[in-house]
Predict the structure.
Amino acid sequence: MKININGKTSVFGVIGDPIEHSLSPLMHNSAIAMMGIDAVYIPFNVKPQFLENAISSIIPLNIKGLNVTVPHKTEVMKYLDRLTDVAKAVGAVNTIINDDGALIGDNTDVYGFEMCLKKDGDVEIFPERISILGAGGAARGVAYACSMRDEVREVIVLNRTFSKAEKLVEELSHVTGKTLVPMPADKETLNRMLPPSGLVVNATSVGMYPDISSSPVLDTDVFHDGQVICDIIYNPLETKFLREASSRGARTVGGLAMLAYQGARSLSLWTGEDAPANVMLDVLREKFR
Ligand code: ATR
């Protein structure tokens, strides 16, 4: 990749800790090259104790936009000037926009999840009943995306620590006005709740590299054809959860497209131009080949 940085080059980047394994620089710089814009995307390893300083440097350094990743997505909110409704509802920011000296916090993970289902899973209309596994930050974005859809009647949030599922449900029900139901994620409950769910999303970290021989679901009988089974994990591309669902005839969707679409949305917000999500997804796929 030829990089031509000059005095007018716009700077974008990502802050996180650790950051060395982030795929964002690769996909964003590929998209920037394809778009033919004068910009560069840089990874910044920001330790938690330097987060406030890092954020207060955005405007003086004229950084145009940043992505935010683990562990800063929630903590960063208090240092920003404004939050979008989505970021407020989800309680997490993954994108900061430097809007002429005002820092706006947005969350493009929600869009990424919806587009991932649409483009990779052919899901235009969500099913009436959806089960979400997990109650952390990622599950919150997924639960928000699902419960904002008019066609969805019930969103079930199943988590190992039941109290966290209760907390997520209580907070999000106020925002979305939808029926969200907290449940424990034990085998008996999963066996009861998953078969009648048209969409099941794994938003836990179970099955993520290097824990590739684990699945959040122990009994594979819960899967059947007619279901869409989504894992927001992208490493490995096909988790044990997806492999087992696929073997039972369910349609499966992995997390790589979500990564590409959230990135494309961030880049569009910063540049005001359509970012090539397909190019971003292709370079990610290439990386995993
Ligand atoms: P993220 O921001 O990626 O969602 P997180 O907030 O740490 O990360 O949430 C991780 C989720 O994975 C939680 O729902 C967690 O369950 P608990 O709330 O019970 O901790 C879930 N999780 C992680 N390891 C798990 C395991 N071994 N079995 C079941 N659930 C697990």
The first helix runs from residue 24 to 35.
